[in-house]
């Protein structure tokens, strides 16, 4: 019996410890059963997620590559095999691929990935399903932020992980070669699934004021439609990376390239 109580105490400590755990570079928040957010608290403040199924675990995005990521993943996943998949190829989501032997990514974003990293690429696209045992994670193609942007959909969990694909309150749709109409198609696709989604988990959680819901997707769709129709007032958008224009609707800000609409 004593052994049982020791085990119970250790288990309670372990679980409470995981609900909000911090290291120098990351904070870990438990979002649900077998579902964690790994938040970079240095640098680009990008966000990774870990979903642990009954048989294996899936990590989505790898932040910028700060130390400590693999230790957190091992602690959360335990003895389960771990796969890493990327929402897109930008450095602030793919820097940590250096810690892995193989990664799952959309082929169209291969050229964005860090160079000189000895990693095997496994290409995934719309329709691919990660079978984690008791949970299945479906891949949804949402080009626009990058040509190979993808979202990960947990149908049973009723949530979607979108990376930077629709932004984190504002989207950089101006930096891709894809015209804005491609981005609009992606947003419409997500909006068509709104009855299946309760929560959207994005690539830069620290930008969110509140948890984003499907209203954010609807606001984005309206913003993109109005820009393409020329029926919304827009402002210049300036950044050291690339300038564009911006349009705001409700909870969403769309940054776009006025020279690449259709
Ligand atoms: Zn990005």
Structural key phrases:
262 residues, alpha+beta, six-stranded mixed β-sheet, globular, disordered N terminus
- Please identify the structural class as seen in this structure: alpha+beta
- Strand % is 25-35%
**Approximately how much helix is present in the residues?**
10-25%
What Rg is obtained from the alpha carbons, in whole angstroms?
19 Å
Order of helices and strands: HEEEEEHEHEEEEEEEHEHEEE
The helix tally amounts to 5
What small-molecule ligands were found? zinc ion
**Could you tell me the number of beta strands?**
17
**Averaged pLDDT, please?**
91
Order of strands, main sheet, comes to 1-2-3-4-5-6
End-to-end Cα distance, whole Å, is: 69 Å
Sheet with most strands: 6 strands, mixed
Any low-confidence stretches, pLDDT <50, length ≥5?
A: 1-18
Rough outline:
globular
Detailed description of the structure:
The chain is of the alpha+beta class. It contains five helices and 17 strands. It has helices at about 1-20, 70-75, 90-95, 180-190, 215-230, and strands at about 20, 25-30, 35-40, 45-50, 55-60, 80-85, 100-105, 120-125, 130, 135-140, 150-155, 160-165, 170, 200, 235, 245-250, 250-255. A six-stranded mixed sheet has the order 1-2-3-4-5-6. Mean pLDDT is about 90; it is low at about 1-20. The structure holds zinc ion. Zinc ion binds near residues 88, 90, 145 and 164. Zinc ion binds near residues 88, 90 and 164.
